[in-house]
Write a structure and sequence with these properties.
It is built from 16 helices and six strands. By secondary structure, it is of the alpha+beta class. Among the domains are: about 10-70, no CATH class; about 155-315, serine acetyltransferase, domain 1 (Orthogonal Bundle). The relative contact order is 0.09.
Length: about 325
């Protein structure tokens, strides 16, 4: 800035930044003076927060002017810089700061519902769905009921539950989170459960358990491991015959067991606990917690009370807020 019109030296005051008489590169915030014909440069440090404006006011004598700059939004809109569950590109639309963990799903019904879409469906919610669930909360519905609705939705349940059952049937263990989410994603996008089971059956984990058995021994062991009982003669003859005749592979047979009504009923609580952890905590349950919650449901306690308990944990809270 080139100064003209001063009859005498003028006082220079700056607020929100610093200035340099003569633009020498030496800046100060201390009140000074300037003469007619001198230049003055003003600078400030822009805000760290994206899309935030910083103002600096320079006063010379009785004349003031304000200089502003706005921090540009340069974060990848699909990522989550502050790790609060809201993608960078969505933060501004819900009045959140992409560099501050401020996803208050506990105090803001809209944020809570939006997060359920991301956690369970892997996408942003459509307007009609968002409005429905926000209205549900506004008229007395609870957060645990909303979460239960998403867990039971065909979009989530039909992808995660069959894969979880297959994990339990094939490997006799809690599904690991990475594997569960990967294969549920594959099922959701068109890969058949039979194809997934073929991949499971070809894994070293499956082969080490069953690879040395003939087909009759294999079927017998599957009955015991999956259904917890010895095979009935007709069932043993049928399944062994399907394998011996080449009608079914072992991977295809495992789908027949994992998707049977008998197994589905016996493993329902294990599958539900697994899905709750996957959606709400983004991980597999540890053995102790898994056993506790399965026993809790086996004892007749409600799924809603399980979900409410998870919502109340510090682990769930820390996903969204400091």
């Amino acid at each position: 800035m080139f100064i003209t019109g001063l009859g005498a030296a003028g006082t220079v005051v700056v607020a929100g930044g610093s200035y340099s008489i003569g633009c020498t590169g030496t800046f100060t915030t201390v009140t000074g003076s300037i003469n007619n014909g001198q230049t003055v440069c003003v600078r400030h440090t822009t805000a760290l927060a994206l899309s935030t404006t910083t103002n600096t006011t320079l006063t010379i004598g009785t004349t003031s002017d304000t200089f502003s700059s706005t921090t540009a939004a340069t974060l990848d809109p699909l990522l989550d810089a502050d790790n609060d569950g809201i993608p960078n590109g969505v933060e501004a639309s819900v009045s959140r700061n992409p560099l501050v963990k401020d996803n208050d799903v506990f105090g803001n019904a809209q944020l809570f519902v939006m997060q359920q879409f991301r956690d369970f469906l892997g996408r942003e919610g459509e307007v009609s769905g968002l409005n429905y669930w926000v209205s549900f909360l506004a008229t007395g519905g609870t957060r645990e009921q909303v979460t239960a609705g998403f867990i039971g939705s065909s979009e989530f349940y039909n992808a995660y539950a069959p894969v979880a059952r297959l994990y339990f049937a094939d490997f006799l263990r809690i599904p690991d989170y990475a594997g569960l989410t990967y294969w549920a994603g594959q099922l959701r996008t068109g890969t058949s459960l039979a194809a997934i089971s073929e991949a499971f059956a070809a894994s070293p984990e499956f082969v080490s358990r069953y690879g040395g058995l003939d087909n009759t021994q294999f079927v017998t062991q599957v009955y015991q491991n999956v259904l917890g009982r010895a095979p009935d003669p007709a069932g043993l003859a049928y399944w062994a015959g399907q394998l011996n005749g080449g009608t079914l592979t072992r991977g295809q047979l495992m789908v027949g067991f994992s998707e049977s009504a008998e197994y589905g009923a016996s493993i329902a609580n294990e599958v539900y606990v697994t899905m709750v952890y996957a959606g709400m905590l983004r991980r597999a349950p540890l053995p102790g917690g898994f056993s506790f919650w399965v026993s809790y449901l086996d004892a007749g306690n409600s799924q809603l009370s399980l979900i409410a308990s998870i919502i109340a944990t510090s682990e769930y809270h820390s996903r969204f807020l400091p």
